Backbone:
Protein backbone atom coordinates (compact mmCIF):
# COMPACT_ATOMS: atom_id res chain seq x y z
CA UNK A 1 0.00 0.00 0.00
CA UNK A 2 3.01 2.29 0.04
CA UNK A 3 2.33 5.28 -2.19
CA UNK A 4 5.95 5.61 -3.07
CA UNK A 5 6.40 1.99 -4.15
CA UNK A 6 4.73 2.94 -7.39
CA UNK A 7 6.77 6.10 -7.65
CA UNK A 8 5.45 9.02 -5.71
CA UNK A 9 4.19 10.44 -2.48
CA UNK A 10 2.30 13.71 -2.98
CA UNK A 11 4.58 16.62 -2.17
CA UNK A 12 1.84 18.50 -0.26
CA UNK A 13 1.42 15.53 2.06
CA UNK A 14 5.12 15.38 2.76
CA UNK A 15 5.46 19.13 3.31
CA UNK A 16 2.55 19.13 5.72
CA UNK A 17 3.81 16.10 7.67
CA UNK A 18 7.30 17.62 7.85
CA UNK A 19 5.88 20.83 9.24
CA UNK A 20 3.42 19.18 11.62
CA UNK A 21 6.00 16.86 13.15
CA UNK A 22 8.89 19.33 13.31
CA UNK A 23 11.14 18.15 10.48
CA UNK A 24 11.18 21.28 8.29
CA UNK A 25 9.58 24.75 8.59
CA UNK A 26 9.54 27.64 6.12
CA UNK A 27 12.26 30.14 7.03
CA UNK A 28 11.04 33.28 8.87
CA UNK A 29 7.66 31.58 9.11
CA UNK A 30 5.92 34.23 11.29
CA UNK A 31 6.79 36.86 8.66
CA UNK A 32 5.39 34.87 5.77
CA UNK A 33 8.60 33.00 4.94
CA UNK A 34 11.47 33.76 2.58
CA UNK A 35 11.35 32.04 -0.76
CA UNK A 36 13.99 29.37 -1.23
CA UNK A 37 14.99 29.21 2.45
CA UNK A 38 14.03 26.54 5.01
CA UNK A 39 14.57 25.83 8.71
CA UNK A 40 15.14 22.36 10.13
CA UNK A 41 13.07 21.59 13.24
CA UNK A 42 14.01 19.34 16.17
CA UNK A 43 13.57 16.13 14.16
CA UNK A 44 14.85 17.52 10.88
CA UNK A 45 18.08 18.64 12.43
CA UNK A 46 18.73 15.11 13.75
CA UNK A 47 17.94 13.63 10.34
CA UNK A 48 20.25 16.12 8.65
CA UNK A 49 23.11 15.43 11.08
CA UNK A 50 22.66 11.69 10.49
CA UNK A 51 22.72 12.06 6.68
CA UNK A 52 25.89 14.16 6.84
CA UNK A 53 27.41 11.76 9.34
CA UNK A 54 26.65 8.71 7.15
CA UNK A 55 28.30 10.45 4.16
CA UNK A 56 31.33 11.59 6.17
CA UNK A 57 31.83 8.13 7.62
CA UNK A 58 31.70 6.44 4.23
CA UNK A 59 33.78 9.05 2.37
CA UNK A 60 36.34 10.13 4.97
CA UNK A 61 36.43 7.94 8.05
CA UNK A 62 36.18 4.51 6.46
CA UNK A 63 38.81 5.25 3.81
CA UNK A 64 42.56 5.87 3.85
CA UNK A 65 42.64 7.94 0.69
CA UNK A 66 40.26 10.85 1.46
CA UNK A 67 40.74 13.59 4.04
CA UNK A 68 38.29 16.24 5.27
CA UNK A 69 38.42 20.01 5.05
CA UNK A 70 36.27 22.93 6.22
CA UNK A 71 36.94 26.12 4.29
CA UNK A 72 35.43 29.60 4.66
CA UNK A 73 32.25 30.64 2.89
CA UNK A 74 33.72 34.01 1.91
CA UNK A 75 36.80 33.75 -0.28
CA UNK A 76 39.06 36.09 -2.18
CA UNK A 77 37.07 37.19 -5.24
CA UNK A 78 39.94 36.16 -7.48
CA UNK A 79 38.92 32.56 -6.74
CA UNK A 80 35.59 33.10 -8.52
CA UNK A 81 37.20 34.92 -11.43
CA UNK A 82 39.69 32.09 -11.95
CA UNK A 83 37.04 29.38 -11.55
CA UNK A 84 34.88 30.90 -14.27
CA UNK A 85 31.96 31.64 -11.94
CA UNK A 86 32.05 35.43 -12.35
CA UNK A 87 31.87 35.04 -16.11
CA UNK A 88 29.62 32.05 -16.53
CA UNK A 89 27.77 30.96 -13.37
CA UNK A 90 24.57 32.24 -14.80
CA UNK A 91 21.19 31.30 -16.13
CA UNK A 92 19.43 32.73 -19.21
CA UNK A 93 16.45 34.84 -18.06
CA UNK A 94 13.50 36.48 -19.72
CA UNK A 95 11.28 39.16 -18.21
CA UNK A 96 7.57 39.73 -18.74
CA UNK A 97 6.98 43.18 -20.25
CA UNK A 98 3.62 43.45 -18.44
CA UNK A 99 4.04 42.04 -14.91
CA UNK A 100 7.88 42.15 -14.85
CA UNK A 101 8.22 38.71 -13.40
CA UNK A 102 11.42 36.98 -14.46
CA UNK A 103 11.54 33.40 -15.70
CA UNK A 104 14.28 30.92 -16.42
CA UNK A 105 14.25 30.64 -20.22
CA UNK A 106 15.02 26.90 -20.06
CA UNK A 107 11.86 26.23 -18.03
CA UNK A 108 9.39 27.82 -20.47
CA UNK A 109 7.51 25.74 -22.99
CA UNK A 110 5.76 28.72 -24.62
CA UNK A 111 7.02 32.18 -25.52
CA UNK A 112 4.70 34.02 -23.13
CA UNK A 113 4.59 34.81 -19.42
CA UNK A 114 3.25 31.81 -17.42
CA UNK A 115 1.70 34.24 -14.88
CA UNK A 116 -0.15 36.72 -17.11
CA UNK A 117 0.49 35.50 -20.68
CA UNK A 118 2.31 38.79 -21.34
CA UNK A 119 5.04 39.31 -23.94
CA UNK A 120 8.57 38.35 -22.89
CA UNK A 121 11.88 40.17 -23.38
CA UNK A 122 14.92 38.68 -25.10
CA UNK A 123 17.05 36.30 -23.01
CA UNK A 124 19.59 37.90 -20.71
CA UNK A 125 22.25 36.16 -18.62
CA UNK A 126 21.82 36.51 -14.86
CA UNK A 127 24.65 35.63 -12.48
CA UNK A 128 23.35 33.46 -9.68
CA UNK A 129 26.10 34.20 -7.14
CA UNK A 130 25.06 36.29 -4.11
CA UNK A 131 27.24 39.35 -3.60
CA UNK A 132 28.08 41.09 -0.37
CA UNK A 133 30.80 43.49 0.77
CA UNK A 134 33.73 43.29 3.14
CA UNK A 135 34.86 46.41 4.97
CA UNK A 136 33.26 49.07 7.16
CA UNK A 137 32.48 51.76 4.57
CA UNK A 138 30.27 50.34 1.88
CA UNK A 139 31.51 52.54 -0.98
CA UNK A 140 35.13 51.56 -0.38
CA UNK A 141 34.48 48.01 0.56
CA UNK A 142 35.43 45.08 -1.61
CA UNK A 143 32.78 42.94 -3.24
CA UNK A 144 32.84 39.31 -2.14
CA UNK A 145 30.60 36.40 -3.03
CA UNK A 146 28.80 33.84 -0.93
CA UNK A 147 30.15 30.56 -2.28
CA UNK A 148 27.77 28.72 -4.64
CA UNK A 149 29.64 25.43 -4.02
CA UNK A 150 32.35 24.21 -1.65
CA UNK A 151 34.64 22.80 -4.36
CA UNK A 152 36.82 25.88 -4.87
CA UNK A 153 37.91 25.84 -1.21
CA UNK A 154 39.32 22.37 -1.84
CA UNK A 155 41.10 23.27 -5.10
CA UNK A 156 42.87 26.27 -3.62
CA UNK A 157 43.99 24.16 -0.63
CA UNK A 158 45.37 21.39 -2.83
CA UNK A 159 49.02 22.15 -1.98
CA UNK A 160 48.29 22.77 1.72
CA UNK A 161 46.65 19.36 2.03
CA UNK A 162 49.29 17.61 -0.07
CA UNK A 163 52.13 19.10 1.99
CA UNK A 164 50.58 18.42 5.36
CA UNK A 165 49.18 14.92 4.79
CA UNK A 166 51.83 13.53 2.39
CA UNK A 167 49.06 11.77 0.46
CA UNK A 168 49.98 10.14 -2.84
CA UNK A 169 47.68 9.95 -5.87
CA UNK A 170 44.93 8.92 -6.08
CA UNK A 171 43.59 10.80 -3.07
CA UNK A 172 40.66 13.02 -2.25
CA UNK A 173 39.57 16.03 -0.22
CA UNK A 174 36.01 16.12 1.11
CA UNK A 175 33.92 18.94 2.47
CA UNK A 176 30.39 19.64 3.67
CA UNK A 177 28.94 23.09 4.12
CA UNK A 178 26.55 25.85 3.18
CA UNK A 179 26.27 27.08 -0.39
CA UNK A 180 24.19 29.94 -1.77
CA UNK A 181 22.68 30.40 -5.21
CA UNK A 182 20.33 33.16 -6.22
CA UNK A 183 18.15 30.65 -8.07
CA UNK A 184 15.60 32.23 -10.37
CA UNK A 185 13.04 29.56 -9.76
CA UNK A 186 12.98 27.83 -6.41
CA UNK A 187 10.37 25.36 -5.36
CA UNK A 188 9.48 21.74 -4.92
CA UNK A 189 10.06 22.10 -1.19
CA UNK A 190 13.77 21.68 -0.33
CA UNK A 191 14.69 20.40 -3.82
CA UNK A 192 15.98 23.77 -5.03
CA UNK A 193 16.74 26.42 -2.41
CA UNK A 194 18.74 29.62 -2.36
CA UNK A 195 20.60 28.60 0.78
CA UNK A 196 21.45 24.92 1.03
CA UNK A 197 24.13 22.51 2.13
CA UNK A 198 26.38 20.54 -0.11
CA UNK A 199 28.53 17.44 0.46
CA UNK A 200 31.21 16.98 -2.16
CA UNK A 201 34.70 15.71 -2.68
CA UNK A 202 37.49 16.18 -5.16
CA UNK A 203 39.31 12.98 -6.04
CA UNK A 204 42.73 13.71 -7.60
CA UNK A 205 43.98 11.10 -10.04
CA UNK A 206 46.75 10.60 -12.58
CA UNK A 207 45.65 11.75 -16.07
CA UNK A 208 44.83 8.67 -18.11
CA UNK A 209 43.33 6.87 -15.09
CA UNK A 210 40.46 9.37 -14.83
CA UNK A 211 37.89 7.33 -16.76
CA UNK A 212 38.45 4.28 -14.57
CA UNK A 213 38.04 6.37 -11.39
CA UNK A 214 35.00 8.13 -12.79
CA UNK A 215 33.26 4.78 -13.29
CA UNK A 216 34.39 3.63 -9.85
CA UNK A 217 32.84 6.66 -8.14
CA UNK A 218 29.57 6.47 -10.06
CA UNK A 219 29.21 2.89 -8.77
CA UNK A 220 30.27 3.73 -5.21
CA UNK A 221 27.89 6.65 -4.93
CA UNK A 222 25.01 4.65 -6.44
CA UNK A 223 25.62 1.90 -3.86
CA UNK A 224 25.65 4.44 -1.01
CA UNK A 225 21.98 5.22 -1.66
CA UNK A 226 21.08 1.53 -1.91
CA UNK A 227 22.91 0.81 1.35
CA UNK A 228 20.78 3.47 3.02
CA UNK A 229 17.69 1.62 1.85
CA UNK A 230 16.71 3.78 -1.13
CA UNK A 231 14.67 1.70 -3.56
CA UNK A 232 16.57 0.84 -6.74
CA UNK A 233 13.53 1.46 -8.94
CA UNK A 234 13.49 5.11 -7.77
CA UNK A 235 17.09 5.70 -8.91
CA UNK A 236 18.39 6.07 -12.45
CA UNK A 237 21.70 7.15 -13.99
CA UNK A 238 21.67 9.98 -16.52
CA UNK A 239 24.72 10.65 -18.64
CA UNK A 240 24.99 14.26 -19.82
CA UNK A 241 25.29 14.61 -23.58
CA UNK A 242 28.63 16.19 -24.56
CA UNK A 243 27.02 19.42 -25.86
CA UNK A 244 25.31 20.07 -22.50
CA UNK A 245 28.39 19.71 -20.29
CA UNK A 246 29.50 22.51 -17.95
CA UNK A 247 32.54 24.47 -19.10
CA UNK A 248 34.88 22.54 -16.76
CA UNK A 249 33.69 19.00 -17.35
CA UNK A 250 34.78 16.23 -19.70
CA UNK A 251 31.91 14.00 -18.73
CA UNK A 252 29.19 14.06 -16.14
CA UNK A 253 26.73 11.45 -14.90
CA UNK A 254 23.84 12.29 -12.61
CA UNK A 255 22.27 9.94 -10.13
CA UNK A 256 18.64 10.92 -10.57
CA UNK A 257 15.73 10.17 -8.25
CA UNK A 258 12.02 9.84 -8.91
CA UNK A 259 10.93 12.89 -6.86
CA UNK A 260 7.22 13.74 -6.53
CA UNK A 261 7.72 16.25 -9.36
CA UNK A 262 9.41 13.65 -11.57
CA UNK A 263 12.90 12.35 -12.30
CA UNK A 264 15.53 14.92 -11.36
CA UNK A 265 19.19 15.20 -10.42
CA UNK A 266 20.06 14.01 -6.95
CA UNK A 267 23.84 13.90 -7.25
CA UNK A 268 26.23 14.87 -10.04
CA UNK A 269 29.52 13.07 -10.70
CA UNK A 270 31.83 15.03 -12.99
CA UNK A 271 35.22 14.47 -14.55
CA UNK A 272 36.61 18.02 -14.19
CA UNK A 273 39.96 17.14 -15.83
CA UNK A 274 42.83 19.46 -14.83
CA UNK A 275 40.69 22.55 -15.51
CA UNK A 276 40.41 23.87 -11.93
CA UNK A 277 44.00 23.38 -10.80
CA UNK A 278 45.28 24.84 -14.09
CA UNK A 279 43.03 27.90 -13.76
CA UNK A 280 44.07 28.57 -10.16
CA UNK A 281 47.69 27.93 -10.93
CA UNK A 282 47.64 30.44 -13.80
CA UNK A 283 45.67 33.07 -11.86
CA UNK A 284 47.60 32.81 -8.57
CA UNK A 285 51.03 32.19 -10.03
CA UNK A 286 51.46 29.27 -7.60
CA UNK A 287 52.30 25.85 -8.93
CA UNK A 288 49.61 23.28 -8.26
CA UNK A 289 51.49 20.38 -9.73
CA UNK A 290 52.07 16.97 -8.28
CA UNK A 291 55.39 15.16 -8.30
CA UNK A 292 55.03 11.49 -9.09
CA UNK A 293 57.84 9.63 -7.23
CA UNK A 294 57.38 6.53 -9.34
CA UNK A 295 57.63 8.06 -12.81
CA UNK A 296 59.63 11.15 -11.68
CA UNK A 297 57.18 13.38 -13.58
CA UNK A 298 55.47 16.62 -12.61
CA UNK A 299 51.87 16.93 -13.71
CA UNK A 300 48.54 18.49 -12.80
CA UNK A 301 46.15 15.78 -11.59
CA UNK A 302 42.71 15.22 -13.05
CA UNK A 303 39.74 15.53 -10.72
CA UNK A 304 36.65 13.39 -10.28
CA UNK A 305 33.97 15.21 -8.28
CA UNK A 306 30.85 13.61 -6.78
CA UNK A 307 28.60 16.38 -5.43
CA UNK A 308 25.23 16.17 -3.71
CA UNK A 309 23.00 18.65 -1.91
CA UNK A 310 22.29 17.56 1.68
CA UNK A 311 18.76 18.95 1.48
CA UNK A 312 18.08 17.27 -1.85
CA UNK A 313 19.33 13.97 -0.44
CA UNK A 314 17.02 14.48 2.55
CA UNK A 315 14.06 15.06 0.24
CA UNK A 316 14.83 11.82 -1.62
CA UNK A 317 15.23 9.93 1.66
CA UNK A 318 11.96 11.33 3.02
CA UNK A 319 10.07 10.42 -0.16
CA UNK A 320 11.59 6.98 -0.26
CA UNK A 321 10.93 6.16 3.39
CA UNK A 322 7.34 7.47 3.42
CA UNK A 323 4.67 4.80 3.66
CA UNK A 324 0.97 4.40 4.42
CA UNK A 325 -0.77 1.25 5.57
CA UNK A 326 -4.44 0.60 6.33
CA UNK A 327 -4.94 0.27 10.08
CA UNK A 328 -8.53 -0.74 10.89
CA UNK A 329 -10.50 2.44 10.06
CA UNK A 330 -7.42 4.62 10.04
CA UNK A 331 -4.13 4.80 8.22
CA UNK A 332 -0.74 4.01 9.69
CA UNK A 333 1.72 6.61 8.34
CA UNK A 334 5.37 5.82 8.78
CA UNK A 335 8.88 6.57 7.63
CA UNK A 336 10.97 3.44 7.05
CA UNK A 337 14.21 5.29 7.75
CA UNK A 338 17.41 3.30 7.81
CA UNK A 339 18.37 2.99 11.52
CA UNK A 340 21.50 5.12 10.93
CA UNK A 341 19.32 7.97 9.64
CA UNK A 342 16.29 7.81 11.94
CA UNK A 343 16.14 11.02 14.02
CA UNK A 344 15.03 9.08 17.11
CA UNK A 345 16.35 5.54 17.52
CA UNK A 346 14.49 4.43 20.65
CA UNK A 347 11.35 5.71 22.37
CA UNK A 348 10.69 4.71 25.97
CA UNK A 349 6.96 4.42 26.70
CA UNK A 350 5.61 3.64 30.18
CA UNK A 351 2.16 2.08 29.95
CA UNK A 352 0.88 4.43 32.64
CA UNK A 353 2.05 7.45 34.58
CA UNK A 354 1.64 5.63 37.92
CA UNK A 355 4.53 6.40 40.23
CA UNK A 356 6.15 2.95 40.48
CA UNK A 357 5.95 2.41 36.70
CA UNK A 358 7.21 5.89 35.91
CA UNK A 359 10.23 5.41 38.20
CA UNK A 360 11.22 2.20 36.44
CA UNK A 361 10.63 3.72 32.98
CA UNK A 362 12.73 6.78 33.84
CA UNK A 363 15.54 4.53 35.03
CA UNK A 364 15.38 2.55 31.77
CA UNK A 365 15.42 5.80 29.81
CA UNK A 366 18.39 7.12 31.78
CA UNK A 367 20.30 3.89 31.06
CA UNK A 368 19.56 4.01 27.32
CA UNK A 369 20.02 7.69 26.47
CA UNK A 370 23.84 7.73 26.64
CA UNK A 371 23.80 5.07 23.87
CA UNK A 372 20.95 6.17 21.57
CA UNK A 373 18.99 9.25 20.55
CA UNK A 374 15.86 8.67 22.61
CA UNK A 375 12.44 10.10 23.39
CA UNK A 376 10.38 9.58 26.52
CA UNK A 377 6.64 9.73 25.96
CA UNK A 378 3.97 9.06 28.59
CA UNK A 379 0.99 10.83 27.02
CA UNK A 380 -2.15 9.24 25.50
CA UNK A 381 -2.84 5.58 24.79
CA UNK A 382 0.01 3.24 23.93
CA UNK A 383 -1.47 2.66 20.44
CA UNK A 384 -1.39 6.39 19.70
CA UNK A 385 2.14 6.67 20.98
CA UNK A 386 3.26 3.82 18.69
CA UNK A 387 1.62 5.60 15.72
CA UNK A 388 3.30 8.87 16.66
CA UNK A 389 6.71 7.18 16.75
CA UNK A 390 5.92 5.51 13.39
CA UNK A 391 5.36 8.97 11.90
CA UNK A 392 8.76 10.07 13.17
CA UNK A 393 10.35 6.92 11.78
CA UNK A 394 11.56 5.65 15.18
CA UNK A 395 12.77 2.07 14.61
CA UNK A 396 12.16 0.79 18.18
CA UNK A 397 9.86 1.51 21.08
CA UNK A 398 10.55 0.12 24.54
CA UNK A 399 7.38 -0.36 26.57
CA UNK A 400 7.40 -0.67 30.33
CA UNK A 401 4.23 -2.26 31.77
CA UNK A 402 3.08 -3.40 35.21
CA UNK A 403 4.48 -6.86 34.56
CA UNK A 404 7.89 -5.18 34.13
CA UNK A 405 7.90 -4.30 37.81
CA UNK A 406 7.38 -7.98 38.65
CA UNK A 407 9.71 -9.66 36.16
CA UNK A 408 12.20 -6.87 35.25
CA UNK A 409 11.42 -7.37 31.53
CA UNK A 410 10.43 -4.82 28.87
CA UNK A 411 8.89 -5.03 25.40
CA UNK A 412 10.77 -3.94 22.28
CA UNK A 413 8.36 -3.09 19.48
CA UNK A 414 9.69 -2.92 15.95
CA UNK A 415 8.43 -0.16 13.61
CA UNK A 416 8.44 -2.01 10.28
CA UNK A 417 7.07 -5.43 11.28
CA UNK A 418 5.25 -4.33 14.44
CA UNK A 419 6.76 -7.47 16.01
CA UNK A 420 7.23 -7.34 19.73
CA UNK A 421 9.82 -9.12 21.77
CA UNK A 422 10.09 -9.22 25.50
CA UNK A 423 13.58 -9.05 26.93
CA UNK A 424 15.14 -8.68 30.37
CA UNK A 425 15.73 -4.99 31.15
CA UNK A 426 19.49 -5.51 31.72
CA UNK A 427 19.68 -6.96 28.15
CA UNK A 428 17.84 -4.00 26.55
CA UNK A 429 20.88 -1.98 25.58
CA UNK A 430 22.66 -4.88 23.86
CA UNK A 431 19.47 -6.10 22.18
CA UNK A 432 18.71 -2.63 20.79
CA UNK A 433 22.28 -2.14 19.66
CA UNK A 434 22.19 -5.47 17.82
CA UNK A 435 18.84 -4.65 16.21
CA UNK A 436 19.95 -1.17 15.13
CA UNK A 437 23.05 -2.71 13.58
CA UNK A 438 20.74 -4.86 11.45
CA UNK A 439 21.05 -8.16 13.27
CA UNK A 440 17.98 -10.35 13.52
CA UNK A 441 17.32 -11.30 17.09
CA UNK A 442 16.59 -14.92 16.36
CA UNK A 443 18.53 -15.77 19.45
CA UNK A 444 16.50 -14.05 22.10
CA UNK A 445 18.15 -13.21 25.36
CA UNK A 446 17.42 -15.79 28.05
CA UNK A 447 13.76 -15.57 29.07
CA UNK A 448 12.84 -13.63 25.86
CA UNK A 449 9.59 -14.07 23.88
CA UNK A 450 8.37 -12.81 20.45
CA UNK A 451 4.88 -11.97 19.10
CA UNK A 452 3.07 -9.71 16.61
CA UNK A 453 1.29 -6.50 17.60
CA UNK A 454 -2.49 -6.53 17.31
CA UNK A 455 -3.81 -3.86 14.99
CA UNK A 456 -6.05 -1.43 16.78
P1 LIG B 1 20.49 21.69 -10.94
O1 LIG B 1 20.67 21.45 -12.41
O2 LIG B 1 19.50 20.79 -10.29
O3 LIG B 1 20.32 23.13 -10.58
P2 LIG B 1 23.28 21.76 -10.82
O4 LIG B 1 23.66 20.88 -11.96
O5 LIG B 1 23.39 23.22 -10.92
O6 LIG B 1 21.86 21.33 -10.27
P3 LIG B 1 25.58 21.22 -9.28
O7 LIG B 1 26.16 22.55 -9.48
O8 LIG B 1 26.19 20.04 -9.94
O9 LIG B 1 24.03 21.26 -9.55
O10 LIG B 1 25.44 20.97 -7.70
C1 LIG B 1 25.70 19.71 -7.10
C2 LIG B 1 24.52 19.22 -6.30
O11 LIG B 1 24.09 20.23 -5.39
C3 LIG B 1 23.28 18.89 -7.11
O12 LIG B 1 23.35 17.57 -7.59
C4 LIG B 1 22.17 19.04 -6.10
O13 LIG B 1 22.06 17.85 -5.30
C5 LIG B 1 22.69 20.15 -5.21
N1 LIG B 1 22.10 21.45 -5.55
C6 LIG B 1 22.45 22.28 -6.56
N2 LIG B 1 21.71 23.40 -6.55
C7 LIG B 1 20.86 23.28 -5.49
C8 LIG B 1 19.85 24.10 -4.94
N3 LIG B 1 19.58 25.30 -5.45
N4 LIG B 1 19.17 23.67 -3.85
C9 LIG B 1 19.45 22.47 -3.30
N5 LIG B 1 20.40 21.64 -3.78
C10 LIG B 1 21.11 22.03 -4.85
Residues:
Amino acid sequence: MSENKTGKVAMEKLVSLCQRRGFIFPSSDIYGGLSGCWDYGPLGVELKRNVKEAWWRSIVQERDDIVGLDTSILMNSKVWEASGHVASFSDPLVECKDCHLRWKADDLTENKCPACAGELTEERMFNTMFKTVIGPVEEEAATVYLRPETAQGMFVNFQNVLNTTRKRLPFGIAQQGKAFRNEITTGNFIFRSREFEIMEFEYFVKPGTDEKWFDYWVEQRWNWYLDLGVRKENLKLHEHPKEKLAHYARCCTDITYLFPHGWAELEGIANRTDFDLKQHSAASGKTLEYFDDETKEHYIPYIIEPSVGVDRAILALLCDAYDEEPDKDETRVLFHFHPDLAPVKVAVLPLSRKENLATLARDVHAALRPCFTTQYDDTQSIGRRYRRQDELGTPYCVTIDFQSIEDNMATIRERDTMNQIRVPIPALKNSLQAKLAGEDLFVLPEGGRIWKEEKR
